[in-house]
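Sequence, structure tokens reproduced for reference:
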Amino acid sequence: MKRRELIRGFIALGGCAVCAGMARASEGPHWEYKGEHGPDHWADLDKANAVCSAGGQQSPINITSAIRAEVDPITVSWKKSSAKIVNNGHTIQINMPEGSSISRNGKVYDLLQFHFHAPSEHLVDGMTHPMEVHFVHKNKKDGDLVVLGIFMMPEQKHDAFSMLARYFPQTEGAEGKVEAFTPSDLLPQGLEYWTYEGSLTTPPCSEIVTWMVAREPLKVEQVSIQAFTSIYSSNARPVLPINRRLVLMSQ
């Protein structure tokens, strides 16, 4: 059995402890994005984080030399609903109720939450973007995780993100509620994407994620980006080696 399949099997049997860990990012050993608790030291903070330095399929990466392939399109079924918005000490995270999902390769993945990074965690041919949003999904049957990453660029007014930015909790541990929000309003017009096998970009850096990174960025207002960067100006893990992984690109 391949290593990734074995790890996913353990997660499915254990009720997806990693998923629970993502929702409780402020718990466990203290970690940061710089200094003695930064990415270079995550593996030293807890034995559970060992893969942060020892893993060979870590994320994020610099996306380069992608191979065009017939990869399945993404079908998005994100529903309008109220949602909890949390400042968890590392990012602003929106926890979604049940009912929203994406489909790919004949499998359905439920949307658990989405959160933001500034600057972007993934690079494209060495280029960074001002922000990146990660939509985290899980398949109920086997615990497989799929994360859809979308770059954000300051180019034009965007009502949905501007509205969401007004609700960003300013202090760690603060929570709020967003009423009648539709996550699909944060999608770019096209969903062509790059895909590769990787990891969580925060401790414990588990290598259990299929990444899909949209090739088209979402265009938003600069003032809305500043609403996030005024709280978290630098919460991006540096890129890691691709090693022997392939990055595929939808046609």
Remarks:
- The chain has six helices and 15 strands.
- Confidence is low (pLDDT under 50) at residues 6-26.
- The domain at 3-250 is CATH 3.10.200.10 (Carbonic Anhydrase II).
- The chain has one domain: 3-250.
